UniProtKB/TrEMBL annotation:
SMART domains (UniProt xref): CHAD (SM00880)
Domain CHAD: 1-258
Organism of provenance: Puia dinghuensis
Species classification: Bacteria, Pseudomonadati, Bacteroidota, Chitinophagia, Chitinophagales
A Pfam family this chain is assigned to: CHAD
Stated name of the protein: CHAD domain-containing protein
PROSITE patterns (UniProt xref): CHAD (PS51708)
Length: 258
C-alpha cells in the first residue's frame, strides 16, 4: 500500500522546491534554478497522472489549471538557451542567429518573471488541492498502472518523432513514481531502473539532435550533413536499447533458497 502520508510528504517537499526555485530564478536568472523548477513540476505532474489513474479525482486537472502554464513558459526559456549550446557542437553559429535567439530568450524571460506572483499564487492554490485529493493506493492498482504504462511505452518505442518523445515522458514518470513506492511494490514490479534511465537518456539525446537539425534544415551550412548523421546514429542507439523492451525492463526473478 502506498499511504496517504508518504504521498503527502512527497508532494509537500516538491511544492516547497518549486516555490524555492521560482524565487531563485526570479532573483538570479540562473538556468540551473529554472531546470530544478521544471524538475520539481515534472514530478508533481507524474504523481497527478498516477493519482488520476489509480484513484480518480481532480489531481491531474489541478496540476493543469494551476501549474502547467508555469512549466511551459519555463520550457520556452530553456529551449532558447539550449538550442545555441547544441548548435555549437557542429559549427560556429552566425552572429545574427545568436542575436535572434538571445532576443527570443529575453522576451520569454521578461514574460515569465512578469508573471511570477501569479504563478506562485495559482501554484500554491493548486498544490493545496493536490494534497487534499491524495488517497492510499493499493499494490494491485500500482501493478495495474505499471503494466498499462509499460505496454503503452513499448508501443511508442516502435515509432519515431513525437511518439518516441512521448515514450520518454512516460519512462520518466515510471521512474519518478518508482522512487515513491513502498519496497513491497518495487519488489513485485521488478523493474530495471538503470535500463529505463539509459533508454530515456538515449531518447533525449536523439530528440535534441532532431530539434537542432529541424531548426537548421533550411540553411545550407557546413555542419548540416553532420547533424543528419548524428540524428541517424542517435535513433539507431535508441532502437538498439528499445529492442525487446518488455523483456529487458524486468529484472530476473530471484529464486527462493532450497
Amino acid at each position: 500500500m502506498l499511504t496517504k502520508k508518504k504521498q503527502r510528504k512527497f508532494l509537500a517537499k516538491k511544492n516547497k522546491e518549486w516555490q524555492t526555485y521560482l524565487q531563485a530564478y526570479n532573483d538570479s536568472r540562473d538556468p540551473e534554478a529554472l531546470h530544478q523548477l521544471r524538475l520539481a513540476l515534472k514530478k508533481l505532474h507524474a504523481v497527478a497522472r498516477f493519482s488520476k489513474a489509480c484513484c480518480g479525482g481532480q489531481a491531474l486537472k489541478d496540476f493543469q489549471h494551476g501549474l502547467q502554464d508555469m512549466f511551459k513558459q519555463a520550457g520556452i526559456i530553456r529551449d532558447a538557451g539550449n538550442h545555441l549550446q547544441l548548435l555549437e557542437h557542429f559549427h560556429t553559429i552566425p552572429t545574427t542567429y545568436v542575436h535572434q535567439q538571445a532576443q527570443l530568450q529575453a522576451v520569454a524571460i521578461a514574460e515569465f518573471t512578469g508573471q511570477v506572483k501569479a504563478f506562485r499564487r495559482r501554484g500554491i492554490r493548486a498544490a493545496k488541492r493536490l494534497l487534499s485529493h491524495v488517497q492510499p493506493v493499493t499494490i494491485d492498482c500500482i501493478r495495474d498502472w505499471y503494466a498499462k504504462q509499460l505496454i503503452s511505452t513499448g508501443i511508442l518505442l516502435t515509432a519515431s518523432g513525437d511518439d518516441l518523445h512521448e515514450a520518454r515522458k512516460q519512462i520518466k514518470d515510471l521512474l519518478y513514481i518508482l522512487k515513491l513506492l513502498p519496497s513491497e511494490a518495487t519488489a513485485q514490479l521488478r523493474l530495471d531502473a538503470d535500463y529505463l534511465d539509459q533508454l530515456q537518456e538515449a531518447i533525449g539525446q536523439w530528440h535534441d539532435a532532431v530539434v537542432i537539425a529541424a531548426i537548421w534544415a533550411d540553411r545550407d551550412l557546413e555542419g548540416s550533413p553532420a547533424m543528419a548523421l548524428e540524428c541517424r546514429e542517435k535513433e539507431a542507439a535508441v532502437q538498439r536499447l528499445a529492442e525487446n523492451f518488455y523483456l529487458r525492463v524486468h529484472l530476473p526473478r530471484i529464486s527462493s533458497p532450497g
